[in-house]
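Field reference: sequence -> structure
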Amino acid sequence: MQYEDIWQIQDEITSAVNSLGYSLWDLHYDRASFSFHLELSEHLPDDTISSFCSHMPLSADYDGEGNYGSVFTLYL
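Structure field:
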């Protein structure tokens, strides 16, 4: 995958997160697993996690709670 493609997808993810009213703490591409690691700057309540995942531009899985907020993996 080209760096330009990664940046474009990161922009799409960032836009989706912002449109839902949340902000990112960390977002990076993991080349080994062909996925994006996303940590929000806040912890989501259990009843909003499924809805959050469904609004992401890629398939998303909830990975638990990180140091700063809820953590997700988004798959290409």
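Note: The mean pLDDT is 96.
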